[in-house]
Design a protein that fits this description.
Chain A: Its EC number is 1.1.99.14. Chain A: Pfam families: CCG, Fer4_8. The complex is a heterodimer. Chain A contains 26 helices and 9 strands. By secondary structure, chain A is an alpha/beta fold. Chain A has 4 domains: 101 residues, Fumarate Reductase Iron-sulfur Protein, Chain B, domain 2 (Orthogonal Bundle), CATH 1.10.1060; 54 residues, no CATH class; 135 residues, 3-Layer(aba) Sandwich (Rossmann fold); 120 residues, Rossmann fold (3-Layer(aba) Sandwich), CATH 3.40.50. Chain B is an alpha+beta fold. Chain B folds into 3 domains: 87 residues, Uridine Diphospho-n-acetylenolpyruvylglucosamine Reductase, domain 2 (2-Layer Sandwich), CATH 3.30.43; 119 residues, Uridine Diphospho-n-acetylenolpyruvylglucosamine Reductase, domain 3 (2-Layer Sandwich), CATH 3.30.465; 191 residues, FAD-linked oxidases, C-terminal domain (Vanillyl-alcohol Oxidase, Chain A, domain 3, 3-Layer(aba) Sandwich), CATH 3.40.462. In chain B, strands 15-12-14-13-17-18-16 form a 7-stranded antiparallel sheet, sandwiched between helices. In chain B, strands 5-6-10-8-9 form a 5-stranded antiparallel sheet. In chain B, strand 8 and strand 9 form a beta hairpin. The chains are: A alpha/beta, B alpha+beta. The interface between A and B is medium-sized, with 29 and 40 residues.
């Protein structure tokens, strides 16, 4: 056993692994188990494999890696688990162990290093990529590439997913954003809006809508200087060090801004922001700062449901179904608030879909890394959407939103069904 | 590892995709829900139908390869641990409901159907399949049949064996046979159906099942009673039945179990109480109303400190769901949870609970007790840590004493989990040497080469509670 291997294994929380009593309650909650019927594709199975690795009965090899990355990380199993096993953190550790092992063997794919080390950590580079995409869109290059087949130069998974990308905001629009938006009436709260990295490029307008809603609800909204990627994608991909670096930057930036609450509109980012204190259990000097930060984090829907009700002036006569963001529902326990908000829109009819809190298959970058499984899960989800006869699918996370747009294309529902972020939908009715 | 030729043949039978033998896949089938036991299979095979099962069995029989049939692996007696290696026969692909016969009140289905799915399917047409093992959302009907699973409705409705009418099964020789059918009355020859139910995969592989259905009860009501001692709870159970009321469910939880379940399900239980009973009656609305009021009266007379009727079906369902989660919720306390299955005649319930308390004290162990009080079926559950060898030894001694106590009180070593590996050392206490000898001769008639789930049920062919590493 190499030194790196031993170091990686020490990272496993053996007590947490032992807490899994293999009762199997997680099996029916797990989308990948339901798809495959394989024990190795269930939370119970994956925890067993971790145990096998931790006690030296199994190797950290490509098979183990594949099984750990086949998990969506939706954490529906945590909701189902009566023994309270923190599966999400276990699978993150397992991926960290895999990545540590790969680094020691220097078998690192170029694209992965590029994204994790050289793009996500730098907001200006994410914005630059956004600008490039905007330019391609406005010059009609995306459409041309689609038509001419040039798109085939991209890996298949990325080519497939980019079809669902909407027009993104121009650099000019983005530059026009004011750093502070004043509350309507007297400000009750000073909110720092956590704009995210990808969210702020691909769904710039959703961030703007969120800010508008919050000002209507009596909050001053500040776009915090110096914030960036939350680190969730890094953490889910076993890049713990990178995740921690990003968390430190966000904590410091929010301390500087001196706000009452830190609000985000992406379920995945929000779950990570609310878990920062767990990331720092080995960093005593940062732990308290992280705890103070976490105490201030709210999901936009969570907060809006607590604030005085918004006044809507434009009824939305539509049938709407709500797709839970896994990390909002299972990660943060926020299920009712978004539904309450939807129901408060005059004219809107909420049609609950079967398995609304079951993962749509987006799961961060899962729809790129495990494209086929992701699309299987998505197709099943779209069947449930069809059953509701809804005209709009509302979601609370950019990944889910993109996935829903892709699902609409795959199910041939363009023009009949629309996918909209909850914040944009509320904003439409203001 | 199996020889390459055999692996190739298996692949030819079920298809490339359905033979798993990589290290991760084998490891994932090295355990079930039983703590501590673990052993690696040589291959996992997922057949799609009786013909494939027959071909796999024939091949295994010719080469003396052990066969371990498996559903969702939720059993608690080590019944699906491949303790002698060989092939784990995963039956999950055979998960179709072929027919719901509303005239004969039967359903015919594959063994891989998840029990809760059968419930949903028959209830959709106003019918009822009563057995409801605690794990029914995950467990399969084939697994329920193999272990003769029980559940919370055993008192009024009986257990799995009371609902199996007919079977298709495959012998190790590859012969596909049928027994029973849709007839309510069927006495032609030995009752092979009853013999196969509860045979724990040691005789044959079940490939098709016909179950008996009932009309869905039109209403149900739930009542909960809290007691400051154990004896009054036990007396309530006796009196209710002596009063000729048979509730669908009478569940018992002791104080430690109440605490844990409450912490998990946030029910606001009165945690100063020593025990509680959860009673449900179903049937025609008038009758249910009458029964539940009478039960409440009896509970009060027998010294219940508090009696509460659930006002809505949702409230009742929530209480029962909490009881279902008891086992897993208990596991929050310590890393390893060992749940046992001692059963006594109803009238000896209080004595048995007291025995468990005494034994826990004697061996300095944390044992919680809950279970199906109406059936006298208790689940003394020990919270421990399998890494502490010294403690595990005391756990084994304590359970041995618990089983002896159950037998002494006229009970048995397992009410619904089966013998498997966990209790094979105690089977003789119940069956006696002559009984075990006859069982072995029956097994030899079905399975002369001893390939069917070896190392289970009979002592001497397996090991006691130890982690097996192959």
């Amino acid at each position: 056993m190499s030194t790196a291997h031993r170091g990686g294994l020490a990272k496993f929380n053996m007590d947490e692994i032992m807490n899994c009593m293999h009762c199997g309650f997680c099996l029916p909650a797990c989308p990948t188990y339901r798809e495959t019927g394989l024990e190795s594709q269930s939370p119970r199975g994956r925890i067993a494999l971790m145990k096998g690795v931790a006690n030296g009965q199994l190797a950290i090899d490509p098979e183990f890696e594949k099984n750990m990355y086949a998990c969506l990380g939706c954490r529906a199993c945590e909701t189902a688990c009566p023994a309270g096993v923190s599966y999400g953190s276990l699978v993150e550790t397992a991926r960290e162990v895999v990545e540590d092992d790969k680094k020691s063997g220097a078998r690192q794919p170029f694209l992965r290093r590029l994204m994790f080390d050289h793009v996500f950590p730098y907001p200006e580079r994410v914005r630059a990529a956004g600008t490039a995409l905007w330019a391609a869109q406005s010059l009609g290059l995306q459409e041309l590439a689609n038509k001419t087949g040039l798109i085939r130069l991209l890996p298949r998974e990325m080519a497939e997913m980019q079809q669902a990308v909407d027009r993104i905001a121009s650099p000019k629009e983005r530059k026009q954003r004011k750093p502070v938006m004043q509350a309507e009436g007297e400000a009750a709260l000073k909110i720092g809006l956590f704009t995210g990295c990808v969210m702020d490029v691909m769904y710039f307008e959703t961030n703007q809508a969120t800010a508008r809603l919050l000002t209507k609800a009596g909050c001053d909204v500040v776009f915090i200087e110096g914030q960036g990627c939350c680190g969730a994608l890094h953490a889910h991909a076993g890049e713990k060090e990178g995740a921690i670096r990003l968390a430190k930057r966000n904590i410091a930036a929010c301390e500087q801004a001196d706000v009452d609450l830190i609000v985000n509109n992406a379920g995945g980012c929000g779950a990570a922001l609310k878990e920062y204190h767990h990331w720092f259990h080995d960093h005593p000097e940062w732990r308290d700062r992280a705890c103070a930060f976490v105490a201030k984090v709210r999901d936009a829907g969570e907060l809006l449901a607590e604030l005085p009700p918004l006044t809507f002036t434009k009824p939305l006569h539509a049938r709407v179904t709500y797709q839970d963001s896994c990390h909002l529902a299972h990660g943060q326990g926020i299920r009712n608030q978004p539904r309450q908000l939807l129901k408060s829109i005059p004219g809107l009819e909420l049609a609950e879909m079967n398995g609304a809190d079951s993962c749509c298959g987006s799961a961060g970058i899962y729809n790129i890394t495990n494209f086929d499984m992701s699309m299987h899960i998505l197709d099943g989800k779209m069947e449930h959407v069809k059953e509701t006869k809804a005209q709009i699918i509302a979601t609370s996370n950019p990944g889910c939103l993109l996935q829903m747009k892709k699902g609409i294309l795959r199910a041939g529902l363009e023009g009949k069904v629309e996918a909209v972020h909850l914040m944009d939908l509320l904003d439409r009715a203001l | 590892m199996l020889e390459k030729a055999i692996r190739d043949e298996l692949r030819a039978i079920v298809g490339e995709k359905y033979v798993l033998d990589t290290p991760n896949e084998l490891y994932a089938y090295s355990y079930d829900a039983t703590p501590i036991f673990q052993a690696m299979p040589d291959a996992v095979v997922m057949p799609a139908g009786a013909e494939e099962v027959a071909a796999v069995l024939k091949l295994a029989n010719a080469h003396g390869i052990p066969i371990v049939p498996r559903g969702s692996g939720t059993n608690l007696a080590g019944g699906t641990i491949p303790v002698e290696g060989g092939i784990v026969l995963n039956m999950n692909r055979m998960n179709q409901i072929y027919e719901i016969d509303q005239q004969n009140l039967t359903a015919t289905l594959g063994p891989g159907v998840v029990t809760a799915d059968l419930h949903a399917a028959v209830e959709a047409v106003g019918l009822f399949y009563p057995p409801d093992p605690g794990s029914m959302r995950i467990s399969t009907i084939g697994g329920n049949l193999a272990q003769c699973a029980g559940g919370m409705r055993g008192l009024k409705y009986g257990v799995t064996k009371d609902y199996i009418l007919g079977l298709e099964y495959v012998l190790p020789s590859g012969e596909v046979l049928r027994c029973g059918g849709k007839n309510m009355k069927d006495v032609a020859g030995y009752d092979m159906t009853r013999l196969l139910v509860g045979s724990e995969g040691t005789l044959a592989v079940i490939t098709e099942i016909t179950v008996k259905l009932l009309p869905l009860p039109e209403s149900k009501r739930t009542l909960v009673a809290y007691y400051t001692n154990l004896v009054d709870a036990a007396k309530t159970v006796e009196k209710v039945i002596a009063d000729k009321i048979i509730p669908a469910t009478i569940e018992f939880l002791d104080q430690s179990t109440m605490k844990v379940v409450d912490d998990f399900a946030k029910l606001g239980l009165p945690l100063e109480m020593k025990s509680m009973l959860l009673i449900e009656q179903d049937g025609p609305a008038d009758l249910v109303e009458q029964d539940i009021e009478r039960i409440a009266e009896i509970a009060r007379q027998q010294g219940a400190a508090e009696v509460k009727l659930a006002t809505t079906p949702e409230e009742g369902a929530k209480l029962l769901a909490a009881r279902r989660s008891a086992l897993a919720a208990l596991s929050r306390l310590r890393p390893t949870t060992i749940l046992e299955d001692a059963t006594v005649p109803r009238s000896r319930l209080a004595e048995m609970v007291a025995e468990v308390e005494r034994i826990a004290e004697k061996y300095q162990l944390h044992i919680c007790t809950f279970g199906h009080a109406g059936d006298g079926n208790l689940h003394p559950t020990c919270m421990t840590d399998e890494r502490d060898q010294e403690e595990i030894k005391r756990v084994e001694q304590a359970f041995e004493e618990i089983f002896h106590a159950a037998i002494r009180l006229g009970g048995t070593i397992t009410g619904e989990h089966g013998v498997g590996m966990a209790k094979m050392n105690y089977l003789d206490l119940k069956a006696g040497p002559g009984g075990i000898e006859l069982m072995k001769r029956i097994k030899a008639a079905f399975d002369p080469n001893h390939i069917m789930n070896p190392g289970k049920m009979f002592a001497g062919s397996g090991r006691r509670r130890v982690v097996v590493k192959r």
